[in-house]
Specification:
The protein is about 30% helix and about 5% strand. It is built from 3 helices and 2 strands, in the order ααββα. A two-stranded antiparallel sheet has the order 1-2. Keywords: ATP-binding, Helicase, Hydrolase, Nucleotide-binding.
Amino acid sequence: MGIYEKGFERPSPIQEESIPIALTGSDILARAKNGTGKTAAFCIPALEKIDQSKNAIQEILFVQVGRSGRFGHLGLAINLITYENRFNLYRIEQELGAEIKPIPPQIDRDIY
């Protein structure tokens, strides 16, 4: 089932600006109000990049209630991870050969 069958008619401003960039593999840091389509803005490109002929993990999305950031050319989305969770993230990196990036230092952590 495609996105139009689920009620999508046209992209929201955050989707219109971020999806083409995400599809190129570039890192994105975006902020928009609740209900503006941020989740679809990072899920749609992640789903588009999946090669169904490969039997391997290709995209990982971590979700936790709270403010969020999206980083990484592999399609990793990380929402505020607590200090206690750091060992779980390290294990995921080791087992999957993925890199989990922290919020870049030039980003104001009070905003994100």
